[in-house]
Design a protein that fits this description.
two-stranded parallel ribbon, 7 strands, Rossmann fold, five-stranded parallel beta sheet
Protein backbone atom coordinates (compact mmCIF):
# COMPACT_ATOMS: atom_id res chain seq x y z
CA UNK A 1 0.00 0.00 0.00
CA UNK A 2 1.35 3.43 -0.95
CA UNK A 3 0.56 6.39 1.30
CA UNK A 4 0.73 9.72 -0.52
CA UNK A 5 1.25 12.47 2.03
CA UNK A 6 1.08 16.20 1.42
CA UNK A 7 4.27 18.05 2.35
CA UNK A 8 3.97 20.13 4.41
CA UNK A 9 1.18 18.74 6.54
CA UNK A 10 0.37 17.45 10.00
CA UNK A 11 0.42 13.66 10.27
CA UNK A 12 -1.35 12.08 13.25
CA UNK A 13 -0.33 8.53 14.09
CA UNK A 14 -3.25 6.87 15.86
CA UNK A 15 -3.12 3.57 17.68
CA UNK A 16 -2.82 1.77 21.01
CA UNK A 17 0.38 1.61 23.01
CA UNK A 18 2.52 -1.15 21.54
CA UNK A 19 1.02 -0.81 18.04
CA UNK A 20 4.34 0.25 16.54
CA UNK A 21 3.71 3.97 16.02
CA UNK A 22 7.27 5.00 16.95
CA UNK A 23 8.74 2.24 14.78
CA UNK A 24 6.52 3.32 11.88
CA UNK A 25 7.48 6.97 12.34
CA UNK A 26 11.18 6.14 12.50
CA UNK A 27 10.92 4.10 9.31
CA UNK A 28 9.40 6.85 7.16
CA UNK A 29 10.21 10.23 8.72
CA UNK A 30 13.27 12.17 9.79
CA UNK A 31 13.81 12.35 13.58
CA UNK A 32 13.30 16.13 13.46
CA UNK A 33 9.87 15.67 11.84
CA UNK A 34 8.58 13.47 14.67
CA UNK A 35 7.07 15.09 17.76
CA UNK A 36 6.65 12.32 20.32
CA UNK A 37 4.65 12.56 23.54
CA UNK A 38 7.10 10.12 25.15
CA UNK A 39 10.03 12.32 24.17
CA UNK A 40 8.25 15.43 25.47
CA UNK A 41 7.70 13.72 28.84
CA UNK A 42 11.38 12.73 28.92
CA UNK A 43 12.47 16.29 28.08
CA UNK A 44 10.46 17.61 31.02
CA UNK A 45 11.21 15.06 33.75
CA UNK A 46 13.76 12.57 32.33
CA UNK A 47 11.11 9.82 32.36
CA UNK A 48 9.09 9.15 29.21
CA UNK A 49 6.57 7.01 31.11
CA UNK A 50 5.75 9.58 33.81
CA UNK A 51 2.07 10.28 33.17
CA UNK A 52 2.01 12.91 35.93
CA UNK A 53 3.62 15.42 33.57
CA UNK A 54 1.17 14.85 30.72
CA UNK A 55 -0.27 18.40 30.85
CA UNK A 56 3.21 19.87 30.51
CA UNK A 57 4.32 17.28 27.96
CA UNK A 58 1.35 17.89 25.69
CA UNK A 59 1.73 21.64 26.14
CA UNK A 60 5.28 21.21 24.81
CA UNK A 61 4.09 18.90 22.02
CA UNK A 62 1.51 21.51 20.93
CA UNK A 63 4.08 24.32 21.12
CA UNK A 64 6.58 22.45 18.94
CA UNK A 65 3.79 21.57 16.51
CA UNK A 66 2.74 25.25 16.25
CA UNK A 67 6.34 26.30 15.59
CA UNK A 68 6.97 23.66 12.95
CA UNK A 69 3.68 24.27 11.13
CA UNK A 70 4.25 28.04 11.19
CA UNK A 71 7.44 27.32 9.24
CA UNK A 72 5.49 24.96 6.93
CA UNK A 73 7.42 21.87 8.03
CA UNK A 74 5.93 18.39 7.80
CA UNK A 75 5.18 17.31 11.37
CA UNK A 76 4.35 13.82 12.62
CA UNK A 77 2.63 13.40 15.99
CA UNK A 78 3.71 10.17 17.68
CA UNK A 79 1.14 9.67 20.45
CA UNK A 80 -1.85 7.39 20.88
CA UNK A 81 -4.22 10.14 19.63
CA UNK A 82 -7.13 7.84 20.45
CA UNK A 83 -9.42 10.44 21.98
CA UNK A 84 -11.00 13.30 20.08
CA UNK A 85 -10.02 15.65 22.93
CA UNK A 86 -6.37 14.84 22.15
CA UNK A 87 -6.76 15.28 18.38
CA UNK A 88 -8.87 18.45 18.45
CA UNK A 89 -6.13 20.94 19.47
CA UNK A 90 -3.81 19.46 16.85
CA UNK A 91 -6.48 19.82 14.16
CA UNK A 92 -7.00 23.45 15.21
CA UNK A 93 -3.28 24.19 15.02
CA UNK A 94 -3.08 22.78 11.49
CA UNK A 95 -6.17 24.68 10.36
CA UNK A 96 -4.78 27.89 11.83
CA UNK A 97 -1.70 27.40 9.66
CA UNK A 98 -3.86 26.35 6.69
CA UNK A 99 -2.21 22.97 6.35
CA UNK A 100 -3.82 19.59 5.70
CA UNK A 101 -4.00 16.85 8.31
CA UNK A 102 -3.57 13.15 7.59
CA UNK A 103 -4.51 10.34 9.98
CA UNK A 104 -2.52 7.12 9.85
CA UNK A 105 -4.29 4.53 12.00
CA UNK A 106 -2.43 1.43 13.11
CA UNK A 107 -5.20 -1.10 13.66
CA UNK A 108 -3.19 -3.71 15.53
CA UNK A 109 -4.56 -6.59 17.60
CA UNK A 110 -4.45 -6.61 21.38
CA UNK A 111 -2.20 -9.67 21.31
CA UNK A 112 0.36 -7.97 19.08
CA UNK A 113 0.31 -4.77 21.14
CA UNK A 114 0.87 -6.77 24.34
CA UNK A 115 3.68 -8.73 22.68
CA UNK A 116 5.39 -5.52 21.47
CA UNK A 117 4.94 -3.99 24.91
CA UNK A 118 6.75 -6.90 26.60
CA UNK A 119 9.79 -6.42 24.37
CA UNK A 120 10.18 -2.66 24.86
CA UNK A 121 13.69 -1.93 26.10
CA UNK A 122 12.98 1.25 28.08
CA UNK A 123 9.45 1.03 29.37
CA UNK A 124 6.23 -0.88 29.28
CA UNK A 125 2.61 0.15 29.60
CA UNK A 126 0.20 -1.67 31.88
CA UNK A 127 -1.85 -4.40 30.23
CA UNK A 128 -5.08 -2.75 31.44
CA UNK A 129 -4.11 0.50 29.66
CA UNK A 130 -3.40 -1.31 26.40
CA UNK A 131 -6.74 -3.13 26.61
CA UNK A 132 -8.43 0.26 27.11
CA UNK A 133 -6.54 1.72 24.14
CA UNK A 134 -7.61 -1.13 21.86
CA UNK A 135 -11.25 -0.62 22.84
CA UNK A 136 -10.93 3.17 22.28
CA UNK A 137 -9.53 2.60 18.80
CA UNK A 138 -12.89 1.47 17.38
CA UNK A 139 -14.61 4.65 18.56
CA UNK A 140 -11.76 6.77 17.22
CA UNK A 141 -12.05 5.15 13.79
CA UNK A 142 -15.79 5.88 13.61
CA UNK A 143 -15.20 9.58 14.43
CA UNK A 144 -12.31 10.29 12.07
CA UNK A 145 -14.42 10.78 8.94
CA UNK A 146 -16.19 13.73 10.65
CA UNK A 147 -13.03 15.51 11.79
CA UNK A 148 -11.82 16.97 8.49
CA UNK A 149 -8.73 14.98 7.51
CA UNK A 150 -7.44 15.24 3.97
CA UNK A 151 -6.72 11.49 4.08
CA UNK A 152 -7.27 8.66 6.52
CA UNK A 153 -5.18 5.53 6.15
CA UNK A 154 -6.18 2.41 8.09
CA UNK A 155 -3.31 -0.06 8.31
CA UNK A 156 -3.70 -3.52 9.77
CA UNK A 157 -0.92 -5.88 10.77
CA UNK A 158 -0.74 -7.48 7.33
CA UNK A 159 -0.23 -4.15 5.57
CA UNK A 160 2.36 -2.40 7.72
CA UNK A 161 5.44 -4.19 6.35
CA UNK A 162 4.45 -3.48 2.73
CA UNK A 163 3.66 0.22 3.18
CA UNK A 164 5.52 2.81 1.16
CA UNK A 165 5.33 6.57 1.67
CA UNK A 166 5.42 9.17 -1.05
CA UNK A 167 5.45 12.88 -0.38
CA UNK A 168 3.55 15.24 -2.63
CA UNK A 169 4.39 18.93 -2.48
CA UNK A 170 1.42 20.79 -1.03
CA UNK A 171 0.79 23.86 -3.13
CA UNK A 172 -0.38 27.18 -1.75
CA UNK A 173 -3.39 27.14 -4.09
CA UNK A 174 -4.66 24.08 -2.21
CA UNK A 175 -5.10 26.19 0.95
CA UNK A 176 -8.71 27.01 0.10
CA UNK A 177 -9.59 23.32 0.13
CA UNK A 178 -8.20 23.05 3.67
CA UNK A 179 -10.13 26.12 4.84
CA UNK A 180 -13.36 24.49 3.75
CA UNK A 181 -12.56 21.27 5.68
Amino acid sequence: MNLTLPDPSLILLIGPSGAGKSTFAGRFFQPTEIVSSDNCRALICDDESNQEVNPEAFGLLHHITRLRLSLRRLTVIDATNLQYQARRPLLRIARHHQLPVVAIVLKISLETCLSHNRTRPHRSVGEHAIKQHVSELSLAITRLAREGYQSIFLLDEDQIDSVTVERKKYRQDEVNAVRGA
